TrEMBL record:
Residues 317-370 form the HNH nuclease domain. It comes from the Bacteria. Pfam families: DUF222 (PF02720). It comes from Blastococcus brunescens. InterPro entries: DUF222, HNH_nuc. CDD domains: HNHc (cd00085). This is DUF222 domain-containing protein.
Length: 404
């Protein structure tokens, strides 16, 4: 193993990166570096397994290698678990272990194969007369020669063949969502879903993504999918079909002082939201553009002195009229459907005292509603056409520029 690593490293030293001038040389070096990384990962995995069998973490007062890797080397719980799990699995898979040590298999691929090495799987295979050595060799070959997705297919096929009539798992037990809220109000998360549940979620997200592809959209696919997820939430909230929360339909809440709402400045950190986020006054005005506004008068010690009824900024009748007239988002190049759109006050209702009227209303999808509240501008011409301007007052044309 050490001889292989030294040979690989010597190959790298023989051709410094700065001296590579052709595509072939750069690609060859990339492949070599992946092989080096795989070989190092293999040595690390074997070492971690050795430390585990020796109960080495006890020396530092820890009970497991997972906790030692997390505490002493600052690895994530996921990565520490993968290292330990791969080490255990490779003891049952010598052909895969050899390919891993030779740099031909990645640590990620070993994780995909690891379920095959589980005690109950190995026992079932032996009971059915399966040649485990042949399975091991086949998995090593697939991992070394075929695309990553093929390996997962082979592993799942093997597991399914071992127990073709086994109990179907409960899909609700295979679903989980982790959400983390950060100090600036942004949210990150991840989810794990069963195959059918994942297919449903992907189908809905893809439908939103494909139905809203405005001209000139240069965002990455992850950005577009993130936007699609929020659009999904918008449609769900607007439909009124979501479960009731403590006698109230779920909705987005923003609490802001009237002075901040009426101040033309951006006003960062001016409004508090229902789940703990803090947003700017400008963002709160954007939310209020097509929402309900409630007045609550507070005393000097925080006591509620008076509260008024919620007022719908855009009443249902006016919204229907705007939808019939505009048909879709009016921002140049966008045709997002009406049920994805807010009714925007062309002349802002808080700062500019714009009227809540058909003439002062425009349908805008969430993305372009945000754009218009950050410097872009839409205007309806006397002939009914909508035109869009950038913050620098240049007009956005779609297709052939209009003659003006």
């Amino acid at each position: 193993m050490r001889e292989l690593l030294q040979s690989l490293l010597d190959s790298l030293d023989a051709e410094p990166l700065a001296g590579l001038v052709s595509a072939d040389q750069v690609l060859d070096r990339t492949a070599l570096l992946v092989a080096v990384r795989n070989a190092v990962d293999a040595e690390l995995t074997s070492t971690v397994r050795r430390a585990e069998t020796m109960q080495a973490p006890e020396r530092d007062g820890l009970v497991s290698m997972r906790s030692w890797l997390r505490g002493h080397l600052r690895l994530s719980a996921r990565e520490a678990g993968r290292l330990v799990g791969n080490g255990r699995a490779l003891e049952q898979l010598p052909a895969v272990a050899a390919a891993f040590a030779a740099g031909a298999v990645t640590a990620e691929q070993v994780s995909v194969i690891a379920p095959v090495a589980a005690v109950q799987v190995q026992a079932e295979a032996v009971g059915q007369g399966v040649d485990l050595a042949e399975v091991d060799a086949t998995l090593a070959e697939v991992a070394s020669t075929q695309v990553h997705a093929a390996l997962g297919t082979v592993v799942q096929h093997f597991l399914a063949c071992l127990d073709p009539d086994g109990t179907e798992p409960d899909p609700t037990e295979q679903r989980a969502v982790w959400i983390a809220r950060h100090d600036d109000g942004t949210v990150t998360g991840r989810f794990e879903l069963d195959a059918v549940g994942g297919e449903k979620v992907c189908s809905v997200l893809e439908s939103f993504l494909q139905a809203s592809r405005p001209a000139g959209d240069l965002r990455t696919r992850p950005q577009q999918l993130g936007d699609a997820l929020v659009q999904w939430a918008d449609v769900t909230l607007a439909s009124g079909q979501a479960p009731i929360l403590r006698t109230v339909k779920p909705h987005v809440v923003a609490l802001i002082r009237i002075e901040d709402l009426a101040d033309p400045a951006t006003g960062p950190g001016a409004a508090d939201m229902g789940f703990g986020a803090t947003i700017s006054a400008a963002r709160a005005r954007w939310l209020a553009c097509d929402g309900n506004v409630s007045r609550v008068v507070m005393g000097p010690e925080g006591q509620v002195l008076d509260h008024g009824r919620s007022k719908r900024i855009v009443p249902p009748g006016l919204r229907r009229a705007v939808e019939v007239r505009d048909r879709h988002c009016v921002f140049a190049g966008c045709e997002a459907p009406t049920h994805w759109c807010d009714v925007h006050h062309v002349q802002e209702w808080v700062l500019d005292e714009g009227e809540t009227s058909l003439e002062n209303s425009a349908l805008l999808c969430e993305r372009h509603h945000t754009k218009v509240h950050h410097g872009f501008r839409v205007e309806r011409q006397p002939d009914g056409r909508w035109r869009t301007w950038r913050p620098d007052d240049t007009e956005i044309f779609v297709g052939t520029p209009l003659l003006v």
